[in-house]
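Example A, followed by Example B.
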Amino acid sequence: MRGKLFISLLLLLMNSALWVPAQSLSAPTQRLVDSLKQELNFAKSDTAKIRLRFLIGFRSLIPRISYWDSIISDARLHHSRRYEGKALNFKGYFLRVHNNEDEAFKCINASLRIAREVGNKSDMFSALQMLIISYMNKSDGRSALDYCYEGLKIAEELKEKRKIADMYSLIAGTYFALGEIKKALTMHLNCLKMYKEIKDNQRIGVALIAIGADYQAIMDDKRAIMYYLESKKYAGTLSENMEAFSVCKSVGAAYVMLKQFDSAVKYMDIAYRMSLQLGNKISMASTMAGLANVKFEMGDYKSAKKIISEAMKLAKEMNFRLEMHGLGMLLKKIYVIEGNYKEAYDAYEMALNAKEISSLDDNKKRAFEKEFNYNIEKKESENKLLAQQNQIQALKLGQNRYLMLGFGALALLILIIAWLLARQNKLKAAQQNMLLEQKLISSQMNPHFVFNSLNSIQQLIMSKENEKAELYLSKFAKLIRELLESNIRESITVNEEVGILKGYMEMEARRFGKAFSFSVHVGEKIDGEKINIPHMMIQPFVENSIWHGLLTKEGERNLTVNFEYDTNKTIKCFVEDNGIGREASKKKNSTFKKRSLALSFVKQRLELMKETLKINCDVNIIDKKNTSGESCGTKVELVLPILVS
């Protein structure tokens, strides 16, 4: 009977191992809550607001059901399933605190369903803890055990020692309720060891009380008293509510066993006042049962019966069958001592009708089955792991067979890499030679242009056209400066090339008395400030058009240069005139072959760039014909690479 009286204590300890609403928050917790509230004020997304509100409620342990209902409602509205489930779990706990066990049970079950749906194992574990307490309160040890071993499996998958120890504590409490006290004691001692390893003083205090209850149940009062009194050392680390209540109740029980009834009543009274402050009817009934036991030991049967009557009402209201059984057995003893055998029989019959007695054997059987199945599953997992290790070992042995082949393949690979590096170095050398050749060709072309320009100035001076010569020389000096600046670079921008071409055509137009008109156009898709092209590629064709196509023609003379977008690697440049054409120019101009030297340089440069850059660079010269088949000018199409500046 003494063991049954302390089943309620174990249930209260299980509750206290979860979350307990504190009277006031510690300073660090209060600072954290204030920080979360400030963050909530600046939160923009609905999901973030729901998360922050949950964290505030979690840290503050807000007991208002309406607070959790609002989070649940908003979480459903914004499809935040995880926080809907977490809020349901907290709501279930506080419904239990408010003595609404049936609604609490519904909320916790809903929380577990959502946690399984979302696949969050930590949330599943929390919901399972709460559900196990619910089934224990309902004296349904079979269902409690089912969820205990499911929770233990999840805790081991999470590899969190605290969660593993917490679930062992719940399993121990279930065994205690089933009368398997020695199993419960073994598990509680292991829990105490694990809690000490992780230095969790709060849970150490709770475990000490549970162990004291185990020893008291097996009539080892000396050790029970030792563990009960040792729990007082950790009172300062416990919350100021349920755990403190449990300490007072267990210390009171220790003084009962020491026959120090005055001290026992003192601590039981303190525990009862705490239970009233908590508003927890289970703790009230449990404490009243303890007080009734003290009064019984003191021989004050009248007071004991009165307390039992009040406690029985609460136990029936809460459907707390475990406590009802203990109270019934104590009441039977009192009636037997008083010689009131009819009432004693009624009390005994009431105790026997408690559900946990009729189902005790079934629950024990279920406990053995669950423990056996769990051990079998664990053994199978270990066997699978061993098989995997054997496979790994076999693979390692197989790998050794190919070790020499691997070394041979590695040596071959090194040779191939060495050959590729040598080939790459050779290609780099060839590429450098090509670049040097490009610069050489460029240096050959620039003197050709300078010579032609100086020749033009000389002709003006000889013709005594000094003003034209002076203006031409000024333009020439500016153009030469631009050419010298561009020549030290591998490329120039399209706008810079346009500036040089315009300067050159303006010089030639002035020198020949504006004998021809010209224009330069850049397409809209070309960013002239950012796109770079090779320098001095277009000027020779412009020069050719002027000297061999336009100057020997009578009538209107036009020259156009157009830049158009081609691909992301090339642009097109069109140089078009309405001159006499190449065939007529060859006949009239004996210097045609000499002036075509620069064009040959350009073609060579394009071929080199095509080879080194792997870009389709090309030049195409088209002889234009009119409807009569007569020459009406020349069109040059240049495909130029876009270069990195």
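Example B, a separate protein, is given below in the same form.
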Amino acid sequence: MSARIKPVALAALVLIGASAFTQAVSVDWATVARIREEGLQRSKVMEYESYMVDVLGARLTMSRDMQRAQGWLQAELTRMGLANVAAEPFMDYGVTWDNEYASVHMIEPDYTTMIGYPIAHTAGTDGKVVAEAVIVDLQTRDDAEKLRGTLRGKAVLVSGPATIDLATLTIGVPRYTDDQLAALERTAIVPTRPAPARAIPNPAVMTAVEKVAFYKSEGVAVVMQTDGNRMGVVPGYSRPGSGQDRWSAEGMRNSPPMMVITPEHYNRMYRILKRGIPVKVEVEVRNRIGDRVEQAMNIVGEIPGTDPRGEVVMLGAHFDTWHASPNASDNTSGVAVAMEAMRILKAIGVKPKRTIRIALWAGEEQGLFGSRAYVRQHFGDPRDAKVGMKPAYEKLSAYFNQDYGAGQYRGIYLQGNESARSMLAAWMEPFRDLGMTAVSNQSVGSTDHIAFDEVGLPGFQFLQDRTPGTGGHTNVDFLEGIQEQDLIKNATIMASYVYHAAMAEERMPRKAPPR
């Protein structure tokens, strides 16, 4: 016999070894049965989802809408029976901004109601404004000088026409196939490469912030732009520079009114103007701007643990959204799943060894501000000598997150933490019939588990189907894009993972400390 092991035999040995390793991790099948019964047969996840979407609506961080919604959230977690429910301030987040009214119409050469929304943290119009539309290509300071004195009272179209992706008109995105899931498991982690050197700014080219200031100084009636390639869709985002001026009242009031228009309506105006035919628009935007700096809040609650060591397992999702829709998928769905997971565990009366803590974040959409501040305040940061590791750093076992849409869980990402594979794979076994089968060694970013992972704490995001839906950050993210069965399954799986992490003999293994 050759000393080389054939690939098939080697694969078999690997599978046998992995299976034996997995079996060494305990699964509480009796409690899983209770979790499944409560979660699959008596779910309230859509009650949470529907109330937040239909009644509470959009929840931009540091808006009156967000503050009202967080009041409801605290009351609901308290009604659920959680302990230590609290709103924890994490930073001065500027003044409040709420859009109260928006109306935009093309009135010449033909009438049409257009779909558009104000860009967050901008000023409103001075009542109803009728303005001539003009195309503006502002790139350099020379362009600004040529335009100076010509834009007062105009509606300026500042982006080029959108190119529509016709494939997006086909409703439905296929779920992951078995082959695709297997490929995700096989994909090796790509080593982190140094960030490319930043290009030296060209002083002749105007920044986005400078362009906004120019339009304001020239007295434009409204800035109009489009973004994306999907008909009927307006993405939500904030005024350039709003993060740098910390969402200040001065920055908001010193901006011109700014709106994003759907590609098809924007393109129509653009084409007419290119024919040399005048276009007039009627616009009215009312934005309420606060008069004092306030603190943003995260909302937390707990099922207290019985172990005197005081260790903790966390789960969560970001509660904040953009402002053009209730954001049913991004991330109301994650909040509903996390709340339902806690409800399930309370309903079956678990007495966990480790405290189970839910955290529903603010400031995620602007840059993970809420979760990063929470981690820094509670656990510390070994990368920062001034902060260091706080005593609670050694008490956290793991954090589990949902924020990749509303699709059902098909697995979990390791974030490169191979030592956690056996635990995460073992806890998956009771849910293989629900399609939960993949453990991917990949790392994914852009949401709140990163706040934990980047300081060396185990933070995990579930691998989710990219199901038919509405997509986050847009004006069309409503309840109609949510598939109830997916959220029911997710909450049940989340509850079981959190429970097992809370009951495990050892805390979740960690990667090498960050440097």
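On Example B: The first strand starts at residue 83 and ends at 92.
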